[in-house]
Design brief:
Length: 393
């Protein structure tokens, strides 16, 4: 850890250049020749990234940042706060500590938190940052987390793991066994040290693939921020043997939309209908969950088609996603398209439709934007249709 980065003049320079182009700064002469210029530039770039993602860190003096990539890969404060809401008890050990964002929030709920990090320098940086943040109930250990588990030799209320893909796994199907640590391989050992495990994975992991590798999965949490899925959380309890529940949450500035269903109860129970007055498009977390029939059942909505994942109703309903009023729907053919859409401006979405948004825009000369929303999809009779809508929420 380079403590010279904490020099007041260097810190003032870093703060004065937040948001400045790094490529332009790199061409300047280093005003602090005793400190590596690249390290200073990295602090500027990483702290700029932290401004919106990690405002508590950004607002605290003398924080040392890891690489920009580490900041991009770490949890945001919003997702870390959600994870912390899932745990309770006296003790938690994080086997893949990283920059320590999750542990900062775990420490607000758990009396004693242990941060394990295999990278010695990063471990020292995190320890320093926790001191600046005035967090006193987190202990940092450097080295292999399996060794740390052996050495500490105690029962934990929770084990938390954020496995990372091995470099030699690129191009392969994303499986937990391709990550470090190898959770499926070590699961029995982990359960000797705890009754409850929380695993964070990237949204890329297929839910069915994850379930095939793990045991005792009580709940899978699909976490989205502003309609972008950020992570999957696998809540595992040693004593659990029932059906897995799926919980989705989409966190926005004003609210959090949640949706939950039991995985094995998801079946082909949707009712189909031609478009009615209102159209509903589930948020990205629900789309990732695959709970499309559960959406239809819970909100009493009809689907347009088994594979379209768009819903309709006569009366408007509160819904975890976008809601539109259908102004018109028409068959997708040359005559109708020329009459209504050529040379117009519209927001375009495709669902269960053979053409891409880009090809539709090019073919019918439709500009992006405006207040008109066009859904190109397939109805219950397998006809290609276009829904022309206005957005309600």
């Amino acid at each position: 850890m380079d403590l010279m980065l904490l020099n007041p003049e260097i810190q003032a320079f870093i703060n004065a250049n937040i948001g400045t182009s790094i490529s332009k700064l790199a061409l300047q002469k280093n005003p602090f020749p005793d400190v590596d210029w690249i390290r200073i530039l990295n602090q500027i770039e990483a702290k700029s990234k932290a401004k919106d993602k990690l405002p508590n860190w950004f607002a605290t003096k003398n924080i040392i940042y890891p690489s920009k990539i580490s900041i991009e890969q770490t949890s945001s404060q919003k997702t870390a706060e959600y994870k912390a809401s899932l745990v309770s008890g006296e003790s938690l050990i994080d086997l893949t500590g990283g920059f320590g964002v999750d542990d900062y929030y775990f420490a607000k709920k758990i009396k004693n938190v242990v941060h394990c990090e295999i990278n010695l320098e990063l471990s020292a940086v995190v320890k320093h940052n926790f001191e600046q943040l005035n967090v006193l109930n987190i202990t940092c250990y450097s080295g292999d987390s399996l060794d740390t588990l052996h050495i500490l030799n105690k029962k934990w209320d929770w084990i938390y793991i954020d496995p990372s893909r091995r470099n030699d796994a690129k191009g392969k199907v994303f499986l937990l066994k391709d990550c470090l640590p190898n959770v499926p391989e070590n699961l029995d050992f982990y359960f000797k040290n705890t009754e409850a495990i929380l695993i964070k994975t990237a949204p890329l992991l297929d839910i069915s693939a994850g379930l095939s590798e793990l045991q005792h999965v009580k709940t899978i949490h699909i976490v989205a921020i502003d309609n972008e899925v950020k992570e999957l959380l696998w809540e595992i309890h040693k004593s659990f043997s029932g059906n897995t529940s799926i919980k989705t949450i989409n966190i926005t500035k004003d609210k959090s939309d949640t949706f939950e269903f039991i995985l094995n109860e998801e079946s082909n129970s949707s009712t189909l209908s031609l478009p009615k007055k209102y159209l509903y498009e589930p948020n990205s977390a629900i789309m990732k969950s695959g709970g499309f029939d559960a959406v239809s059942s819970l909100y009493n909505l009809d689907k347009l088609h088994k594979h379209s994942h768009l819903y309709t109703s006569t009366e408007i309903k509160s819904f975890p996603g976008r809601v539109f009023e259908i102004q018109k729907f028409l068959p997708y053919n040359k005559l109708e398209m020329k009459s209504f859409l050529e040379h117009t401006q519209a927001n375009i979405t495709t669902r269960n439709f053979p053409d891409s948004v880009e090809s539709i825009r090019k073919k019918w000369k439709i500009k992006d934007g405006g207040n008109v929303y066009c859904f190109f999809t397939t109805d219950e009779n397998n006809n290609k249709i276009v829904l022309i809508c206005t957005k309600i929420s």
